[in-house]
Structure formats: structure tokens, C-alpha cells
Amino acid sequence: MCLFLFIYIITEVKQKKNSAELLYTHYILLFNYHQLFFIFLFLVVASMQPFFLALFALVV
After folding, report:
1. Domain that residue 29 falls in
2. Residue 49: which region, alpha, beta or left (left: phi > 0; alpha: psi -120 to 50)?
3. 19-48 vs 50-59: helix crossing angle, rounded to 10
4. DSSP state of 60
5. Which of 27, 56, 26 is nearest to 42 (CA)?
6. Residue-wise pLDDT tens digits, 16-48
7. Residue 19: how many other CB atoms lie within 10 Å
8. Are the C-beta atoms of residues 20 and 48 closer than 8 Å to each other?
9. Is the Cα dihedral 26, 28, 32, 35 positive or negative?
10. What is the Cα–Cα distance from 50 to 60, expressed in whole angstroms?
11. How many domains does the chain have?
12. pTM
């Protein structure tokens, strides 16, 4: 999924000329998707291990 997003970003940047602003916003989007992916992965692990779920509750 992250690879697909990265390819999409590259193709869209090639199409548009104001690439600096576009690249900046897309990298923020990509970073947010990365964060969401890691949070999702952590929650999947946490659902199997109650200790991690308690740790996640403390962090958030």
C-alpha cells in the first residue's frame, strides 16, 4: 500500500509543474499514512497481547 502511494506521488509530481508545494503536501500525506499503518499494526499485535494494549492506552 505504501509502495502504491509512493508510485502515485511520483507520477502526479511528474504531471504537474509546481512540484515543490505538491511534493511537500504529498510527503506529509505519506508520513501520515505511515503513522496510521504502524498504529494499525501495533493495535493488531496489541489485540493478541493484553500487555501491549495497556501500554498503548498509556501512550495515547
Report:
1. 2-12+19-59
2. beta
3. 140
4. -
5. 56
6. 555 566 666 666 677 777 677 777 777 777 667
7. 13
8. no
9. positive
10. 15
11. 1
12. 0.33
Q: Which helix (H) or strand (E) holds 1?
A: none
Cβ-contact 26, 10 below 8 angstroms: no
Give, to the nearest 10 degrees, the angle between helix 2-15 and helix 19-48.
Answer: 170
Predicted pLDDT at 37: 76
User: 16 phi and psi, to 5 degrees?
Assistant: -100, 155
> What does the pLDDT read at residue 40?
75
Reading the block at residue 4, the C-alpha cell is 502504491
Amino acid at 59: V
CB distance 14 to 23 below 8 Å: no
